[in-house]
Design goal:
CATH class of the largest domain: Alpha Beta
Helix content: 55-70%
Distance between the termini: 44 Å
Strand order of the largest sheet: 1-2-3
Radius of gyration: 23 Å
CATH superfamily of the largest domain: Response regulator
CATH topology of the largest domain: Rossmann fold
Strand content: 5-15%
């Protein structure tokens, strides 16, 4: 099918080999020696190390499947796994991983653009995104309205925003990705 694969005997072998940096899809057996595949998936979810995971097991119950899906599994398959079902699940997982990586690149670029702002521009950015008018911003930060307009213009340019709603969406995205206050 043209997919590159690597096989590891345990979760620790996978981690030691740097698999987390490379994986586009991890296919895990729920029952593995040492740490189980489900436990590993939950550790990944708690750590924020986003991975696309397909779990397989000879014995899947509803509770286990729910636990796996809550931890972010793309799919949970029961052994014996049909080749087509596994391939479809892996392809969905690879697609999800590609989308996540693209979003991460976009988020990094957005953070870099925000970093290019001066302290005052960041302050104006946050206040504009919070919905304040130029006059209100000027009063809040003790500068003239004309200066606010100048900073706002620079913010729009440096952030690459084409409109105010675009700038607000950027602020919201930044707040979601790094927990900042814009």
């Amino acid at each position: 099918m043209g997919l590159q694969t690597k096989i590891f005997g345990s979760v620790q072998a996978f981690v030691d080999a740097g698999g987390l940096k490379q994986a586009a899809c991890i296919v895990l057996d729920i029952r593995l020696p040492g740490r189980s595949g489900l436990e590993f998936l939950e550790v990944l979810a708690r750590s924020g190390a986003a991975q696309s995971v397909v779990l397989i097991s000879g014995h899947v119950d509803v509770q286990m499947a729910v636990r796996a899906m809550k931890a972010g599994a793309v799919d949970v398959l029961t052994k014996p796994v049909r080749e087509q079902d596994l391939l479809e699940a892996v392809n969905r997982a690879i697609g999800a991983d590609q989308q996540r990586r693209e979003e991460a690149k976009g988020d990094a670029a957005l953070r870099a653009r925000r970093q290019s702002l001066s302290d005052r521009e960041r302050q104006v950015f946050a206040l504009v995104a919070a919905g304040l008018l130029n006059k209100q911003i000027a009063q809040r930060v003790a500068i003239t309205e004309a200066t606010v307009k100048l900073h706002r213009s620079q913010v729009m340019k440096k952030m690459g925003a084409e409109s105010l709603p675009d700038l607000v969406r950027m602020a919201d995205r930044l707040a979601k990705t790094d927990g900042s206050e814009h």
